[in-house]
Amino acid sequence: MMNRFMMLFIWCFVELGFGVNGFKVPFRPKDLLPILPKELTWPVLNNLHSAVDLLPSYVGSIGPNSGSIQWKGSCFYGNEARFEFKNPVQGDVNDDDDDKKKKSLGGGVIYLETSAAHSWTCMDLYVFATPYRVTWDYYFSAREHTLEIESWEESAELEYVKQHGISVFLMPSGMLGTLMSLIDVLPLFSNSAWGQKSNIAFLQKHMGASFEKRAKPWVAPINPDDVHSGDFLALSKIRGRWGGFETLEKWVTGAFAGHTAVCLKDEDGKLWVGESGHENEKGEEIIVVIPWEEWWELTLKDNSNPHVALLPLHPELRAKFNATAAWAYARSMSGKPYGYHNMIFSWIDTIAENYPPPLDTHLVISAMSMWTRVQPSYAANMWNEALNKRLGTECNLYKDDCPKV
Question: The whole model's pTM is what?
Answer without folding.
Answer: 0.57
